[in-house]
Write a structure and sequence with these properties.
Elements (H helix, E strand, L loop, with lengths): L2 H15 L1 H14 L15 H7 L1 H9 L1 H19 L11
Helix pairs in contact: 1-5, 3-4, 4-5
InterPro entries: MCMDC2_N (IPR058769)
Protein name: MCMDC2 N-terminal domain-containing protein
Organism: Marmota monax
Length: 95
């Protein structure tokens, strides 16, 4: 599965599980705090068995390569923040 397909699968999973809406709500909270150049922390709950049922390759990636899978979800969240303009002062993906 290509990296782009993994990101697409992660986004679809987050949307279907309600994680994307929770992430958007958390971003609004951070955006309202008016901190500049802060480091943001998000907790995104992922059920590997649900992911395996939906996208076996992504679920396998989560179970066997959790750090790489975390990078995929981090990238998806960064793209969502930038695309939806959720946090204006966010500069980098690792912030």
């Amino acid at each position: 599965m290509s990296n782009l397909k993994m990101k697409e699968a992660a986004l679809i999973y987050l949307d279907r599980s309600g994680g994307l809406q929770k992430f958007i709500d958390d971003c609004k909270y951070y955006n309202d705090s008016k901190q500049s150049y802060a480091v943001y922390r998000f907790n995104i709950l992922i059920n590997p068995s649900d992911v395996v049922e939906l996208y076996a390759e992504l679920g396998n990636h989560i179970l066997h390569h959790p750090l790489k899978a975390a990078q995929v979800f981090q990238s998806v969240c960064f793209i969502a923040v930038k695309t939806l303009s959720l946090i204006g002062q966010l500069q980098t993906e690792t912030q």
